[in-house]
Design a protein that fits this description.
mainly alpha; 0% strand; rod-shaped; 5 helices
Length: 165
């Protein structure tokens, strides 16, 4: 199971907390690794500078310091790659949260739109004008209900075709 699958299935709060923990761990490792790398580099540089003078370390120790420095460089590179990957996971999580919020907003918009037209129709017929022909019409009440139901069904069909609901 890849990271995107975990981000998709785990609750957002759990994923966010885990990403935060990993980020802090990487920063702690970097704070430890960088000075160690720099210290070993200074030792390697000083050993090279005093080659003509008295021997500070035996040759085997110099080789070991060079090897340790190479390993620290590789570890630091791996740490940077891990930071980049973690940043990508964080960006993916934020995009996922934004998409989820967009879906919720879209559904709330559909609900508001479904209620808007019937509210308008009820508001018009609730004004009690004297010269409103539907008030004196025998089927005026049924007409207003039919209009409300028809417009609501048409909206539902339209929203379903657009895959909003």
């Amino acid at each position: 199971m890849g990271i995107p699958a975990i981000v998709e299935t785990a609750p957002s709060e759990v994923t966010r907390n885990r990403v935060s923990e990993l980020r802090h761990d990487l920063l702690h490792i970097r704070r430890t690794l960088a000075p160690t790398r720099d210290a070993v580099r200074q030792i390697v540089d000083n050993v090279i500078e005093v080659e003509n003078g008295p021997e500070v370390f035996p040759h085997d120790v110099e080789v070991a310091f060079n090897s340790a420095y190479d390993k620290l460089l590789r570890a630091f590179d791996g740490l940077e790659i891990s930071r980049d990957l973690l940043a990508s996971v964080r960006d993916y999580l934020q995009a996922k949260i934004a998409n989820d919020q967009n879906e919720v907003t879209k559904r709330l918009t559909v609900v508001a739109s479904l209620l808007l037209v019937p509210t308008f129709i009820v508001g018009v017929y609730g004004q009690n004008f004297i010269h409103m022909p539907e008030l004196h019409w025998r089927h005026g009440y049924a007409f207003s209900w039919g209009l409300i139901i028809t417009t609501t069904i048409l909206q539902l069909i339209w929203f379903r075709r657009r895959h909003w609901i």
